[in-house]
Amino acid sequence: MPNTLPSILKLPRELRQQIYHYTLTQDLQSHTIPISVAQRHGYYKLHGLEPIQGLILVNHTLHDEVLSYCFSRLTFALHNERESLRFVVREFYRQIGAQNRGRVTRIAIPDFSIDAVFFDAANMVSLFASSGARYCQLHQEMQGVFLWLARFPALLKVDFGIDFVEATRSTGACRPWQCGNRVEANVRMRFQGVDVIHGNYILDALGEARELAPSVRIGIWWKGERWGISELEASQAKLFFLECLRTAVAPIRVECKDGG
């Protein structure tokens, strides 16, 4: 009987995995697959997993091996752009299927931000009188992200990219929807001292991470400018934010990925 195995299955498993890795990420040093969602006519289409399709159709053995490697070893970076973050996490959960949901171990959310969605020019939220209500709605939807993340049974790590100014301004001292754009919001409401943080939209939303299993680790990396404050003040603000977050989500561990 002739050998009908695809040539790739004749290679050692370690080498096959390197091929899968490069096909999926285009870089052996990267462990991240960017995922985005586009909405059209009420339907959400998931983008980022297209390279997998060509691999899994070759052979049943290869199908299972590729999916197992992809979903258990790599990090899925969920980019929401102008969409509500909850929709992106929800559609990723729904569209990858039950078996793959049970394999996902690492998720990253590069822009855990209300401002980024609110001030996106395509949304034109600031043109409407209900802008304040819309900002609060986005905040509630961001909190809802964790109910979806909690549904991934094998999840071990979630990383969040946090805008410094957005994460260190008090909910009681600012109304972002009254500013014309995100830059203006950051300039007008820049951080004035650690004691000004009496509640914060981002910190409040991240507090919902207590919905996750205790074994999940949270990683924070800081983004954006300090907007005129000293490096020492910025470091104090970051530490204060992290201490508040650790208290809110204990016993879940919180790590700072950039040493800030």
Automatic annotation (TrEMBL):
<protein>
    <recommendedName>
        <fullName>F-box domain-containing protein</fullName>
    </recommendedName>
</protein>
<dbReference type="InterPro" id="IPR038883">
    <property type="entry name" value="AN11006-like"/>
</dbReference>
